[in-house]
């Protein structure tokens, strides 16, 4: 389900859609990947659902955060590189990846405010980092029905800063040869999105954000640029490697 804001009285809107298991609204219009559809704007309907007590959660979390700050510690949000893992306790330390600085701020801000989840956009995909409920401490892609564990690790400030510096240096070194390029799906420069793992296709050498080509990989589609057949299993191994991001 997607919520779109339109002006009062708008009879219809045109939106880009992409086909996966079903048709869904895309974040961007991508030539050769998305199609345009007209959607009729119906009267607003109010749906009843579970009410999240944001005030209570905010108070509890604020007390927790105050204790952390008093001890000179800070949070670091991490995502599990293994999608749909079933046992959090069995995840090895090297299987946890770091979010980028902007996403770290967004997730931590929502957590401090007592919200149930934090929506984030990575490439052309949208995720919810969920704090409570049945998907608590998971990164959820509702469009592709994918879930990953996340965790909030609290470290001394100096150690947290050291972890972030080391991860940034490792990412820059691993992607130095594509620093001047851009993802052909979302058109963002790789240099401006260092937190998103970069996938290089072995068959043709074209590079994309791992998050942006996940749906193509799920459908075993060819390269979106040159249409050569791709071994996506090999190509997406980079997402499970020692990089920062969140696919």
TrEMBL record:
Entry keyword Transit peptide: no
Residue ranges crossing the lipid bilayer per the database entry: none
Molecular function via GO: zinc ion binding
All residue ranges annotated as the WWE domain in the record: 63-152
Protein name: RING-type domain-containing protein
SUPFAM superfamilies documented for this protein: RING/U-box, WWE domain
Keyword Plastid: no
Annotated keywords: Metal-binding, Zinc, Zinc-finger
Source taxonomy: Eukaryota, Sar, Alveolata, Dinophyceae, Gonyaulacales
Pfam family, one: zf-RING_2
Domain RING-type residues, every copy: 183-227
Native organism: Alexandrium catenella
Superkingdom per UniProt: Eukaryota
